[in-house]
Design goal:
single chain; alpha/beta; nine-stranded mixed beta sheet; two-stranded antiparallel sheet; about 20% strand; Aldolase_TIM; Radical_SAM_STM4011-like
């Protein structure tokens, strides 16, 4: 079977942070909801363990997953599977890091976001340096809010130079060239996030070699297209996998547009698509194509 990339998002929607731009800030799941999320993730982990496919998995929880023991355990378990090329998760890095000593770090990676209003830069950078010393693959990013430009510069100066710093365009924010310039200086790939991409009818790997999986096993081509392709657990999704164009007018989220074939981002992020690490070293040498 052809390699398959899975973006998994279970019921979890709670977070320990209180970011003003996030609808899930300080949201609390009930004990029942947490049990449901744990059961769903354990079921998914079992499926991945027994799957005949060569797989890559990115966890994209609405909330913060790694403060929950079952996400840490799933990451460790999946990292040791011989048919898993990569397991990664989006995280604010607020969890303890000792669990990583049990993982296969040749397979595991982290997509880490810095939230300046929630954690001191010193504490965050210390954790990043700890990751680097452990040999963990990770990228670090920040939301490109105007008030965070100076903090982002200080973060770049404090991080190990080999760590890629990405910048996400703030949702709903229109950047003039002058506004965008400092973010481009920090992240040479910022233009991909700055401008929504016209995607209607354009070829995209989602629905063919990339799928989105919900906690109940519902399979969609990606998180942003509601059409259901089938279910993971009865294998009904497999007959729906095929090349297809995007049905949406635009795509403006990295975990979506990275799979748009005309953008060529699989070349830019070769070997690091899920953890958002470009193939070329940070500093503007990553190979890019025109965007739009």
């Amino acid at each position: 079977m052809a390699p398959l990339t899975i973006l998994y998002r279970g019921p979890l929607s709670s977070c320990d942070y209180d970011c003003a731009y996030c609808p899930f800030a300080k949201r609390r799941d009930t004990p029942t909801q947490l049990r449901e999320d744990r059961a769903a993730l354990e079921r998914f982990t079992t499926w991945v363990t027994d799957a005949p496919d060569q797989l890559s998995v990115l966890f994209t929880p609405w909330g913060e997953g790694l403060v929950r023991s079952w996400y840490r355990r799933a990451m460790v378990t999946l990292s040791h599977l011989p048919h898993l090329d990569r397991v990664a998760i989006q995280t604010n890095l607020s969890c303890r890091l000792t669990w990583l000593t049990e993982a296969d770090l040749s397979t595991l990676a982290l997509w880490v976001t810095y939230h300046p209003t929630q954690v001191s830069r010193e504490r965050f950078v210390a954790r990043c340096r700890e990751l680097a010393e452990m040999g963990v693959r990770f990228s670090v990013g920040i939301v490109g809010l105007p008030e965070h430009v100076e903090e982002a510069r200080r973060l770049r100066d404090a991080l190990p130079p080999e760590i890629y710093l990405w910048v996400n365009a703030a949702e709903g924010h229109v950047y003039t060239d002058e506004d965008a310039a400092p973010w481009h200086d920090l992240d040479p790939l910022f233009s991909y996030s700055r401008h929504p991409h016209h995607s209607l009818g354009r070829p995209c790997r989602t629905g063919e070699s990339v799928i989105s999986v919900a906690g109940d096993g519902t399979v969609r081509r990606c998180h942003f297209v509601p059409q259901i392709l089938g279910n993971l657990y009865d294998n009904s999704f497999r007959s729906a996998l095929r090349p297809r164009g995007c049905p949406l007018a635009v795509c403006d989220c990295h975990i979506g547009y990275v799979h748009l074939e005309p953008l060529g981002l699989y070349d830019v992020y070769a070997g690091g698509v899920l953890e958002r690490i470009p193939h070329a070293p940070p500093g503007g040498t990553a190979r890019t194509r025109s965007v739009g």
